[in-house]
């Protein structure tokens, strides 16, 4: 099987190109040999397995507290949303075939760490004392997760269906003011999980993933988009993620 890979643009910064090559090797090509599964299958296993995994943790630790149920609904529900998104408008990036070692690295090196969030809370390793009253903090986390899910789904759907009809820059809709709304949505979702757990580990994990993967992917994407007419004007009038993050 062959593995289609989008070439790294020559205009991409050296640091981003280097990190992308490293992560591509570790998650897609590590160990060489047969490529028996798609990257999407590894991701979907983790996303779809989150709800039963968290349910098992609640049973194992006899935890029926409100925070545990809310976390189950938010993180487990997000996993189901991801599966529906993958069925309706799959991201071609995740359709590539990867090696056995690459799949194991992708799961253990990144995806499994997301499960540690729920374990911290449900096992009571994290006993959070929130900055606000519990009900207010729960409402904040739920709101952040809901809005983030809507932003991510809307942005990915717009990109998928627009590019099928008209390749090139997408400068309207969800992309009118923000160049990477799908990443913003993902960050809001996982940020809500970290806030609900309220432990240092999820914030460290997210900082590593957002800096080592998300920032690299967005930088590479911008180097690729720069070849399209109108890029300079579009970049001038939009934000990377949020107004303070140009």
- Compressed to H and E, one letter per element, the order equals HEHHEHHHHH
Strand neighbour order, sheet with most strands? 1-2
Identify low-pLDDT runs.
none
General form: globular
Number of DSSP strand runs: 2
Strand proportion, as a percent range, falls in under 5%
Helical stretch tally: 8
Helical residue percent? 55-70%
- The rounded Rg comes to 19 Å
**What's the end-to-end separation, in Å?**
40 Å
Mean pLDDT: 94
Structural domain tally: 1
Helix/sheet category: mainly alpha
What is shown here, in short?
With 246 residues, the protein is mainly alpha-helical. The chain has helices at residues 14-29, 39-60, 66-88, 100-122, 134-165, 181-197, 200-225, 231-237, and strands spanning 37-38, 97-98. It has one domain.
What would your notes on this structure say?
By secondary structure, the protein is mainly alpha-helical. It has one domain. 67% of the residues lie in helices and 2% in strands. It has a two-stranded antiparallel sheet with strand order 1-2. The longest helix has 32 residues. The mean pLDDT is 94.
Write the layout of secondary structure elements.
Elements: H1 14-29, E1 37-38, H2 39-60, H3 66-88, E2 97-98, H4 100-122, H5 134-165, H6 181-197, H7 200-225, H8 231-237
Antiparallel strand pairs: 1-2
Can you tag this structure with a few keywords?
2 strands; 246 residues; single chain; mainly alpha; two-stranded antiparallel sheet; 2% strand
